[in-house]
Write a structure and sequence with these properties.
alpha+beta, Beta-Lactamase, Alpha-Beta Plaits
Length: about 300
């Protein structure tokens, strides 16, 4: 039986408080817990197992083991600041920071335990947003160069592990310098924002696009053979030509005949990042030297 004074204190606490008996059945469930998890207290007390709130036996056992061990989070019978997840009634996963203690001062589960569940949702969303901003190019909305190197390294490893092809497209704008020189950088930025939109439109969820620097872009295509990468490269080229500013009578100022030079290559993962980038870059320069407005392919040399 829960002490009346303890029950009154849990009612006042702004954080969710959940207590369980020795068998893991919930015997304390305060209003803040109701609000967070969307369960009515009458449907929980004496009926629901903490396993259901944690979303599975493994997570519940992990918390119990940490309380018993005491080495990492505050001592035997205590748990302070442990980050995990709980599940709301609608199945939504909620990140929480858990502080818990055994009800038995001797350090056994004979009298159950009580935990304070601090909702971390807002903090996690903020962290995710800050992470997104740190890897995003402000102008184009694509990922930035720093994130490109992190991503391509991971994708090379994945290609090696699973034996899947990894394609890379390198893109450079033709005649872009003329726009900057004659119309200024604000108009140049307009073109860069436009190519960002063109690239994002045709990518699959698994694909990732990056502003590599200046007017050069990279697209990483996991699990993609060279033929599919070529099709995407040509589709991007055509779409850019169709809608680009300052092309085909779209500009009241003047036309520049902007276009894309694209280099396409593929790898099995058994090479360095530098080798892969250099080959895509070489293919792009071949396209540019051939007059631009085209893609060229440089395959990986036979090993």
């Amino acid at each position: 039986m829960i002490d009346i004074e303890v029950a009154a204190l849990t009612e006042l606490c702004p954080d969710p408080i959940i207590g369980v008996d020795a068998k893991g059945i919930v015997n304390i469930f305060n209003p803040a817990a109701e609000s967070l998890l969307q369960y009515r207290v009458a449907d929980v007390l004496g009926k629901m197992s903490i396993v259901d709130i944690y979303g599975g036996i493994e997570r519940a056992r992990r918390v119990k083991g940490l309380l018993e061990d005491g080495a990492q989070y505050g001592g035997i019978g205590r748990l302070e600041g442990y980050e995990t997840e709980v599940y709301a009634k609608d199945g939504c996963r909620i990140p929480i920071r858990l502080s818990a203690t055994l009800m038995d001062p001797a350090g056994s589960f004979a009298h159950g335990s009580i935990g304070f569940f601090h909702d971390q949702s807002a903090r996690k969303k903020l962290e995710a947003r800050l992470k997104e901003l740190s890897v995003t190019d402000d102008l184009t909305g694509l990922h930035n160069q720093r994130h490109f190197y992190e991503t391509v390294e991971a994708e090379l490893e994945r290609a090696r592990r699973y034996g899947r092809a990894l394609s890379l497209i390198c893109i450079d704008l033709d005649k872009f310098k003329q726009v900057n020189d004659e119309l200024g950088h604000l108009e140049g930025d307009r073109v860069l924002r436009f190519i960002g939109k063109v690239i994002r439109r045709d990518l699959r969820k698994a694909d990732k696009a990056f502003r590599y620097g200046g007017d050069e872009f990279m697209i990483i295509l996991p699990e993609t053979e060279i033929v599919s990468a070529e099709l995407l490269a040509d589709r991007l080229r055509v779409r850019f030509n169709e809608y680009a500013p300052y092309n085909n009578g779209k500009s009241q100022i003047r036309e520049f005949d902007l276009s894309l030079s694209l280099g396409v290559t593929v790898t099995d993962g058994y090479e360095t990042v530098e080798e892969l980038i250099n080959r895509a870059d070489k293919a792009m320069y071949k396209a540019k030297q051939a007059g631009g407005d085209r893609y060229m392919v440089v395959p990986k040399p036979a090993s």
